[in-house]
Amino acid sequence: MALLEVDNLSIAFGGVKAVQNVSFSVDRGLVYSVIGPNGAGKTTLFNLITGVYTPSEGDIRLDGKSIAGTAPHRLALKGMARTFQNLQICMNMTALENVMVGAHLQLDRNMVKAMLRFPGIARRDRELKDEARELMRFVGLESYWNLGASSMPYGALKRLEIARALAAKPQILFLDEPAAGLNTHETAEIDELVRKVADSGVTVVLVEHDMKMVMNISDRILVLDYGKKLTEGTAREVRENPDVIAAYLGSNA
Fold it and tell me: Does residue 149 share a domain with residue 165?
């Protein structure tokens, strides 16, 4: 059974159908990319799946159970995490503190125990800090542990956001344009990191405009056209599809 199943998903805004009868499934451990030009419905599709919007039609299933319309914080408890096009970093915190914020679902929420600093709470705090450091190593940011986020370069902040999302220990991670605004070297780092995340066992669903990156790392690709599914397949199948070449990749792709 696929980890994520999307079945005839639709939503309309003011009579305009932003997503129309889109269906696909994502198997565990894959890098699954969604491509299309601005206005194709990519981010709207992400927002539907991750609980920002409620679909007007269709269903979404995670591990075989319907999650359509489920609030984002409840989806996080079910193992779903995401990043956004615009950075959601706490600039007044250190890099390590930002990653620890992402682990809030793992914290003991008993405020009385926390206030009294029971030994178990203090021990768990140390464990979370160690886990955050390990995640920073995983994304290649170990040299930034105690640096304020406001002092970090943009490319490093992109990787920090991924580390924070991973701190929630998701089974599926949605990345919304992780390479946006990056130079060639920084894009290559994100490329390598996305593949590394998938190889670690976390399924990745990716929206990205950088076609070189998409074709390099994707196991499967969904192409949207004005909110509709144009085609789906491997990178080679998508790259060689005449409709995709004409609409998205250009004649020299």
Answer: yes
Name the residue among 33, 57, 37 with its Cα closest to residue 46: 33
The DSSP 8-state label assigned to residue 105 in this structure reads: G
Domain boundary among 137, 169, 201: 169
Last residue of a domain, one of 135, 169, 203: 169
Structural contact between residues 100 and 167, judged by C-beta atoms closer than 8 angstroms = yes
Query: Widest CA span of the chain, in angstroms?
Result: 66
Do residues 241 and 228 lie in contact, with contact meaning Cβ atoms separated by under 8 Å?
no
Residue partners of 137: CB distance under 8 A and separation at least 6: none
More confident residue, 226 or 62: 62
CA dist., res. 210 & res. 177, Å (int): 9
- 73 shares its domain with 140: no
* 177 and 72 share one domain: yes
pTM value is 0.89
Q: Quick one: 155 and 177 in the same domain?
A: no
Residue 118 — pLDDT band, cuts 50, 70, 90?
low
Q: Which whole-number Å values give the CA distances from 167 to 80, 95, 208, in the listed order?
A: 11, 13, 22
Which backbone phi and psi does 83 adopt, to 5 degrees? -115, 170
Instruction: For residue 113, give every residue at least 6 positions away whose Cβ sits within 8 Å of its Cβ, in sequence order, or none.
Output: 120, 121
Q: Is residue 223 part of a domain?
A: yes
Q: Which two tokens stand for residue 223?
A: 């192409």
